[in-house]
Hints:
The complex is a heterodimer of chains A (480) and B (256).
Chain A: H1 4-35, H2 43-73, H3 81-104, H4 127-156, H5 159-162, H6 178-209, H7 218-251, H8 261-276, H9 290-319, H10 328-351, H11 353-359, H12 364-389, H13 399-425, H14 442-476
Chain B: H1 2-16, H2 26-29, E1 42-45, E2 51-52, H3 53-59, E3 62-67, H4 75-86, E4 96-101, H5 108-117, E5 126-130, H6 134-141, E6 146-148, E7 153-155, E8 159-163, E9 169-174, H7 179-189, E10 209-212, E11 217-220, H8 223-255
Parallel strand pairs in B: 3-4, 4-5
Antiparallel strand pairs in B: 1-2, 1-5, 3-8, 6-7, 8-9, 10-11
Amino acid sequence: MESIKIRKITSIWIITVLTLFVASIVLGILMRLNQGGVLQQTPITFYSNMTIHGITMIGIWFVAGMAGINYLMERYVKTSYTANLIALILTVIGVLLLWAVTLIGKFHTAWTFLYPLPLKVMWAKWATPTFLVAMSILSVGWLIWGISMMTQVLKKYSIAQAFAWQHFKKDPEVKTPPFILISMITLVGVITCLFVAVVLMALYFAEYFSGGSFVNDALLMKNLTYFFGHTIANEMLYLGLAVIYELFAEVGGRPKWKTTWYVALAWNFTLIFILTAFFHHLYMDFVQPEGFQIVGQLASYLASLPAAAVTVFSVWVAVYRVKIKWTLTNLLFFIGVAGWVIGGFGAVIDATISNNIVLHNTLWVPAHFHTYNVMGNVLFSLGFFYWFSIQFTDKLVSERFSKLILSLLIIGGAGFLLAFYIGGADSIPRRFSNYPAEFTSAKFLANFGAAFATIYLIPILILFYNITKRCLKILFSSSS
Amino acid sequence: MSKNIVFLFLLIIGFCNFAEAQTTSNALKEETNIYEKVFDVPLQVVDRQSASFDELYAQKPVILALIFTRCTGICNPFLVKLKENLQFKTQENPFQVLVVSFDSRDGISDMRRLAQNLGLEDNKQWTFATTDSISRLNQSVGFEPIWDSLRQQFDHDALLVGINKEGYITKKLIGLREQADLELLIGSVNNIFSPTYRLPNQNSLFSCFNYDPVTGKNTPGLGLLFLALPAVLTTLLLVFISYFVRRSRQKRVQLN
Lengths: 480, 256
C-alpha cells in the first residue's frame, strides 16, 4: 500500500493543480471577452495572458497525470518519494518563474515559443533568460521524476514484461497489468520528449549567450519545439488513460481489466506513432522533405487508432448491458473518453494535409485541443482527484449534486467548444487579440464561448472546494 | 523549504537580469526590403551620359554593389571577388553590375580610378557611378553605413542587391559570397524562381538538411541527429537501467 508521505504529496499536487486551473480558466475567459470586445486589454496583456494560460494548462495536466500514476503505481511497485518531492519543488519554482516572466516581464511568445521569437526581446530584458531557465528547471524536475518511476517499474518487470511483449504468445507466465503497460509506454514517451526539451533549451541558451556569433537552424528548432510540445501534450492524455485502465472497472465494482495481445500490440504501436506524429505541425514548412510530411500524416492517423479504438472498445464492453455502480468518478472517466475521442476526430481532420491548408491557424486548432483537454484529459484527472479525495473520508458528493456538476460541465464545455469549432469552420484566425470587422461572427462567437466557459467554471469551482477541502484534511492529518 | 524556493527564485531572476541578448544575424538582414521598389535616383556614370536608375534597370537587370573608394576594409576584396566570380559567366541570363559610391566625398574621377584599378574600365557589363541622392538609395535597399569618425571610415556590410527589370529588389547577398550564391542572385533578377536555398548562417553545422542548388536535392545534415538523439538516449537509458537493476538484484541474491 502507498505510504502516508505519498498520500500527502499527492494532495499537494492536487491542490496546486486545481488552484492554477481555476486561475488559468479565468485568464482564458478574459481573453475570449477581449476578443469579443467586452474587455479592452492591450495586445501585450492579451498575448502575455495567452502565453501563461497555455503553459500553465499543459504543465498542470501533465503533472496531474504524473501524480496520478505515481500514486497508483504504489499498488505494484515502491516509488521514490524523493523524486516526487524534487519534481514538486522544481515545478513550484518553474511555475513561479513563468508567472513572473509573463505577468511582470510581459513575455508573450505563446506557449509554443517558436524560434526565434524568444530571442527577439520585446519585453523586460530578464524575461527571455528567465523563461529559458524556468523551462529547463521544469524539464529537469520532470525528467528525474519520469526516470525514477521507470526505474521502479524495471526493478520488478523486465523490459519485455514492462512492454507486455510476452502477451503476444498464448498464456504468458507473467501477466503485465494494463496500468503498468500504459504507464511504461507513456513514461518512455515522456522521457524522450523531455530529453528533446533539454536539447532545445541548450540550443536556445547557446544562441542567447553567444552574442550573435551562433545562430540556430530554424527548421531544426521548429522540429525540436514540436517534438517536445506536441508529444508532451499528447502523453499527458495517456497518463490519464493509465489511471482509467486502473480505476474504471474497480470504481464500478467490476473485475479489473487485463492485458490481452491486442491491448499490448496497440499500446506498443502507440509509442512509435506518438513520437512521429509531431511532423504534422510542419506541413507549412516547404523546406521539410515531403517524406516527413507523409510520416506526419500517417502517424497522426495511426496514433489515434490503436489507443483510441482499444480504449473505446474496452470502455464500451465494460458498460454495455453490464450492471455497474456509477459514481462521479467513473462518470467523469466515461464522459472524458467521449470528449477525448471527439477531440481526436477534430485533430485527425486538421492533421489531414488537404484540410490543413484550410484549417491551419484558424480557431479549429484551439477547438480540437480544447476538446480533448477540457472534455477529456481534465475529466480523467478530476475523476482521479475526486476518487483520491474520498478514499479517506465517508462523506461523498450526493447523486443529485453529481448530476448537477456533470450537467454543467457538459453544457458549459460543449458551448465553449462549439464557438471554437464554428469559428474554425468559418476560417476565423486564432491568436488574434482583436478581430477586425471583416470577421463578422468572430466577436459574437468569442462572447458566446466566454459565457459557456463561465458555466464550465461553476462545477470546477464546486469540485475545487470539495476536493481541496478533503485534500487539506489528508495533508494535515497526523496518521493514516 | 518555502524559504529555499523564494531564495532560488530571486537568485534566478537576478542572474537573468544580467544576461545579454543576441544581435540580429545576416540571415535576417538579407530578408529585408525584398520585393520593394528601389528608389529611382539620378546617376553620374563614369565615361557615359548621366542616367536615372530606372533607365538603367529597364535595359538589363542590375546587380548593385555599394562601396566607397577610400575604404581600407572590405570594399576592395569585395569587388575583386565579385569580378572573379563573374569573369567566366556567360550571358545566358542577362545582367549588369552597377557599382555606386555611398560616400559623398567620392567624385566621378574617384570612381573612374577605381574602375581602372580593377581593370574594368572597358568592360561593358560594369558601370561605375555616383549619385547626389545616396541616402534615399541606401534607405530603399536597407543599407545602413555608419560613420566612424575615429577611423575616418564607414562601418558597413558588403552588400549586393539584385534588381529586376521592373526595379524590384529580388534578392540580397551580404558578405563575400561564392559562385553558387551569385547564380541564385542572377537567376532572381531574371525572375527565375529558386524554390529553396540556404540563408547565410554561422551555424550551418546543425542544419537538418544540406540543400544542393545544383542537383536540387537535400542530403541529411547533423541537425537530424539532434532529432534522433532523445529517442536514442531514452532507449540506452532503458537498457542501462534494466541491466543495472538486474545486476544489483543478482548481487543481493548472492549475498543472501
